[in-house]
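From the shared-data thread, chain only:
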Amino acid sequence: MLEVRDVGVRYGERQALRDVTFSVEPGELIAVIGPNGAGKSTLFKAICGLVNHEGSVDVNGVHCHDRVDRMDVAYIPQRNDADLLFPITVGELVGAGRRRYRRWYQRATAADRLVVAGALASVNLAGFENRSLTELSGGQLQRAYVARALTQQASVVLLDEALSGVDHPTTDELFDLFERLSEAGTTLLVATHDLALARRRFRRCLAVNGTLRGDGPPDQVLSVGLLDATFGSGGDDALAH
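Structure, as tokens:
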């Protein structure tokens, strides 16, 4: 489903990410852990094609340079208050995921609206189509972004701290949804600072700090040695070079 090979990203003189290689099978649900500034968001943006990068990213066997439809990957960024400055409704946000299925000048169809309604129902936001984003709580806004990924019918979903600031009941609801998507064959990578959550709800973890520090089951990746390499002085030294 997803193959990342020797991916590196520079911002000017700073090497934000280097030599990241891993592959993901359809339906995997993976935690991506690491401290702030470790390169988790940069990795997600490289996979989506939002930043220039060294190396290659294949999605469904298609190389990054050959991908015409980049909406086969859905990126749900960290919540930003700037999101709330756009005067759009929940329905418009979620409906944006349907753009890959029609030409830019075509209006949404009745079928599109049915898909949007179904996606909102899946994240417990049924009937929210006409509400402004400013009316949503943090958890509701994250669920709306997940609903947009559902309408997009992406093969790979990248969630960048999407659970940050979300209460426990909402986290549980979202994980139930993630697991249903995973069982249906969607690949999900979830960046999180919550190591207890990573240990409890995931079968695989990627540890990132400047490069890939660990890849495997939580008991292995969340061991003392790998955590020190990811969050301790070892990781800081790596970022400085």
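DSSP finds nine helices and ten strands in the chain.
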